[in-house]
Structure formats: C-alpha cells, structure tokens
Amino acid sequence: MDRLKESPWRITRWQEDSYQVLMTLSSGEGGAAAKVRLYYDGALSVTNVMCLETAPEDCDSVGRALSKPFAPVSQALGEALNDFLDRVAPGGFQLANAKESSYKISLVLSRGEDAVELELNAGKDGMVSSILLLKATTEDVLPEVESVLKGAQ
Description:
Blueprint: E1 9-17, E2 20-27, E3 33-40, E4 46-52, H1 56-66, H2 75-88, E5 94-101, E6 104-111, E7 114-122, E8 128-136, H3 142-152
Helix pairs in contact: 2-3
C-alpha cells in the first residue's frame, strides 16, 4: 500500500475474504499494533473501515495514513467545501467521507464517536447555496451541529 510508505505503519498480516480485507499493522513508534478491516464493493472501492482491538489513537493514526484527503474535481465545489470546513472546524467536526456530484457534495462530518451526514450544495461561483442535514448518529449531537451550521451559512 503506497499510502503507508510515509507513515510509521507497516502491514504484518493480510487476509482477504469476500469483499473484505483484514490487515494487522505494526508501528515502529512505541510498538503499537492495529487490526483494521476494510470492506469494499464490486468496483473495489472501500465502503467501510473498522478498527478491531485497537486503541483509539492508533485507529486515528492508521486512518490518517490510509486515507487520501478528499478533493472535489470542480474548483467551485472545492472552494465551497474549504470554506465550509473552515467554519465547522471550531466545533470539533472533521471531514470523514465525501462524494461529489453535479454542484453537490454528500459528506460525513465526525467528532469522536458522533457522525453527521450532510449535503452541501453550491453554485458555479463556489458559494454555498444550501446545507441539508440528512442523518446523525445520535440526537444529542443535533443541537451542536445545528449551532455550528448556523455559523457556517
């Protein structure tokens, strides 16, 4: 995996099953170890990543090493997304997943155990035209997300 080359993580075990891969990784930094299960679809796109028997900080470190930052193809959507992320970052939310379509980005923001699925619509000029809240992991996070989003619009 090319993405691990610039990280301290190395694959020590690789097991493939139907539409999933179980990796065991080790790190030279402090002898940390991590087990990660990657689920993928028929197009070989990763659909879910799950850490097993792994400390949260090691899971975050492996996730950052495996993930490639999302960059929209559309320059206008890129500007809208960057502005949006700058505004929600003070609330502790980070981009966990995103998918681009015509003048729209479906995205997932995460903060700790909480995640929120949103839809960000933008015009050709890169200005956000609407933000739709689609799903949240818990009701407790909704008021916080709404508060952050009011500041982002």
